[in-house]
Write a structure and sequence with these properties.
The complex is a heterodimer of chains A (about 210) and B (about 375). By secondary structure, chain A is of the alpha+beta class. Chain A has helices at about 20-45, 115-130, 195-200, 200-210; strands spanning about 60, 65, 75, 90-95, 100-110, 135, 140-145, 150-155, 160-170, 185-190, 210. Chain B is built from 16 helices and no strands. The chains are: A alpha+beta (about 210), B mainly alpha (about 375).
Amino acid sequence: MGVSTTVQADGRGSSGIDRRTIKPALLVLGLALLMSVVLPRIDSATSYRDGVRKGDVAELADGITLVPAPGWDLARGALVGRVRSAVGSTATTELVDGSVDLSVQVAPFDGTPAALLSRVDQINAELSDARGRAAAMTRRYAVTTRQGAVGVAEDFVGLTRQGSIVAFVFRPAPSAQAQPTREGVEIIVSGPKGSISRRRADIVAMIRSIRNAP
Amino acid sequence: MTTLTEERSRAIEQSGWGEEFHLVQPHNLAFWVYCLLVVAGAYVLAGQVSIALAAYSGALVNGIISFGLVAVAYLWFIHHEDRYTTIPGKLAAAGFVWGAVAAIGAFALLSNDAVMSLYAKAFGASFAFDWGAALAAPIDEELAKGAGILLLLTLAPKLIRSPFDGLILGAFVGLGFQISEDISYAWIGAANAFGNVGASWSTIVVRTLASLPSHWMYTAVFGAGLIWFIGRPDVPARRGLGAGLMLTAMLMHGLWDASSAIAASGVFGWVVPLAVAGVLIAVFVWVYKTSVPIEREWMRELMAPEVELGVVTPAELDALAGTRATLRNYIRAHPSRRTTERVLAAETDLAHQIARGGGAESAAVREARAAVAQARGI
């Protein structure tokens, strides 16, 4: 013989809802709205206070750096000398300036820049198929950093955004680890057409500034 | 009615033992809010899963299988520790689903991102890199999981009667959250490594090794604290202790997330997470030991009339209502351990049947008594 644990009907109001259950239920609902609706809206309405300054260097991963263009905002990542935690060999960095976004993903990758770009294209194609959104890709071209590293790039044009994907693969310093692995670097720049064009010089400078520390 | 029988009735009434849990309660607003937020959470998670299925399905499958096995191990452990007035399976399942779906999808995913981004905007990305997760997740996630315990308390006020119930239910909610988060980390690990499925294995190994001082334990401590803070009919509210435990759960969570920033990539970087794990486990054990006596007392009061009837011996009652060490010592003291374990299992089943029947004599109770005799080989 089991006894029901439902709250008894003696506390019900005209709505049929037990009054004793209203306060805790609304408290939880209010918390959910605060966390999933209000906080993201506050975030969207808040701008960065402290843009990147001349001399700042972003640490993309252990030993790999990029010099961000002054005035851009570092949305995600670490500046050299400003963080206590180790950045590690797999890391994400994101720089934004208005509606233009430059994101960098670094992770171990044992292949060529062309192979990395093909891998990225394959993932993007799979995701585009799932989302029903496709972007037209241009032919590939070479990109060289000021340090002399040669990468591969291609441009894409979507319905609302366009941009470029660039891939590099850096060899580690001989003394870096007992079993050194190569680090793949994927850079995706995207934004509305006009915005990208206006920031072209900044974007090129940032990509060319990528260095692999000896 | 004898004093023992009165005490049995009181124990059943106070503990809620034997009560059934019904999630569907149209007159309870907590039911509608629970459903709404689980559906909202499922919708958000479905978006994530569709990405994982499209491009990282191998890593997703690895995560589901590996962490599914981890979940089974922890579910067994939590159920094993809940050996007195056991939380019903349906209530535990409702808690697990809340943690796995609503707490993540309808609360933590969106709020963590927003708060981390706000830290980056206000104090710089480097500050957010070091401290963002430690300052966002403990508050967002403990409140999200705790909200589920509050809803389930509103849905099952007669079943959640002690801080120990809060501890166990919190563990189920936290475990659901932990497994859901672990699975997502498995495929996100592959996504961050250009789709390399092998990267998911390192995530799986690390998160499995770090699964002990994790969400199931934080939320267990938080759940016990919440019940102490609110109070129950037979457990007076202890607001200071309750608030202290909820804050402790958040603090331990925060210190764990801040481990690498605190250690600052020093040689003894492992000391911080180890110390946090040690303190968290100590707090968990303290909460367990402090909250469990009332459960033992209820077991003793429920089964005492069976001693008078000669169904259970006084020593068996001590073992049934005693600590795990008492139980272990009792079993070891007998030459035929298997028979002793069978008798104790039959007596535990008898206790459940008595509680389900509200203390009344019934065919099920008589059958359970016969099963005790049969286990003795009589």
